[in-house]
Every structure is written in C-alpha cells, then in structure tokens.
Automatic annotation (TrEMBL):
Domain of life: Eukaryota
Record lineage: Eukaryota, Metazoa, Chordata, Craniata, Vertebrata
Protein name: NAD(P)(+)--arginine ADP-ribosyltransferase
PANTHER family attached to this UniProt entry: ADP-RIBOSYLTRANSFERASE (PTHR10339), GPI-LINKED NAD(P)(+)--ARGININE ADP-RIBOSYLTRANSFERASE 1 (PTHR10339:SF19)
An annotated GO cellular component: extracellular space
Stored InterPro entries: ADP-ribosyltransferase_ARG, ART
SUPFAM superfamilies named among the record's database cross-references: ADP-ribosylation
Amino acid sequence: LDLLVWTPALLAMTVATTATSMVPLDMALDSFDDQYRGCRRAMTELLPALNHLEFQQNPLFARVWVKATDEWWRRGPPVTPLSPAQAIALMTYTMKDMYKPFNDAVHVAGRSRQEYRDNFHFKVLHFLLTDALATLRDTRGPRCHHVFWGVRGVRFQARPGNTVRFGRFASTSLRQEIAQQFGTDTVFQVQTCQGVDIREFSSKPSEEEVLIPPFETFRITSVTQEGDRAQIQLRSAGTFSKYSCEWLRRDIMG
C-alpha cells in the first residue's frame, strides 16, 4: 500500500496502487456531504444525546475529544464566534489520530441513507465541523483562499474542464513550501471559496491550515506534467450536496 498524504499532514488515505496506478478526481458521490442548511439549530439540540451515543460506539472519537478539550482549555480559548463545542471539534479533527479514520468514514458514509444512519459514528464531529466552518464564513464574510497540497506516490486522473469534489474535509496550507514538505509527486494549487482558515483552532497552527468541506465543487483548470511530477490547478465552482438534514429524516424514513 502506498500512502497518499493530503497536506499538511491532516488528511491521509491509503489506496491500493502501484507506481503507475491512477486515482480519479471525480465528484466523490459516495461521500457524506450534508450542509445542514435550515436545520443547524435543530441539530444542535440533538447533540447531547447523539454525542453520548457516539462516545459509546466510537471509543477513538471519545478519547481524542477529551484530549482536544484538555488542549483547548490549556491554551486559553481566544475570542471567537464559535461555541466551545465547535472549536473543540476543529481541534479534535486536526489531531493525528483522528483525521484519517474520520475522513475515510466520511468518504463512504454517503453510499446510502442506511450506511450513514447505522455505520457512520462520526455524526457529531461531521456536524460540528460543518457548523463551525459555516459560522466562521458568516462572521468573516465571503473570502476565497489560494492554497496548496503536496502529494507523494500517487498520480491522478484529472481532465481540464471536469468538475470534482474531494468528498472529505480537505486540509490544505496557505504556504506552498509547507505543502511540499509532504510530497512533490503531485502539487495541487486550489482556489477555495468554502474553505476556512482554522489555524487558531488547530493542534498544529504552524501549518496555516485552510479546511475545505466535502461539498465544495471545483473546476479543473490545468494539468501539467514535468517528468514524474504533476501540477493540478483547481478553481472553486460552487457547492453540491446529495444529503440535506439527513439525521432529522430518520423518523420519517424509518
């Protein structure tokens, strides 16, 4: 197994590949992509019970959440529009034990409603991250960022003009030199208008992270190859979600 690392070290997935294998960039339609539009308050009211359940179902989440909570209060919380739960969710996500299993789960939890309801035990973290990014976007106003990834050991099927999503919470860096510390086989240059600078909430603030939600769409504007290295440029093209307030539909769907 080769390891594909979406830099800065906060997003990784393992793919079965060889030196010449290709990983497609597509719309990642199996991912869980809820934006919780119109139901953020209702979801917040359900969090205590849901969080209690997921702490039992997901010991990793429970353990890292406690660790992130301790770190958050140790630092001394900054003045922020986020609730403590939202801020701690961001801290939880950026910790090394969490980002990979969480994003692996996000990437497939949208295969079906049943998959999300029965097998996705990161519902609280997914909602709080989405809600935190929306709150920060609302507070800071519309803003796009030019960010970078460096990828090691994987080539991508990427055709200029295609529309794609990452289908997971994608951690990127504002600084190209940081991105390239994690790989130069493929370097992504991305214009994101849904991604948010979260460095003050990160366990690794020096990585200058911009976190992109799963539902942002991008147009592939350029793919260039130089020897064994590639550069892919993406430009924000809006948003797309298959799911909307899915957890609130559970009683309706049975």
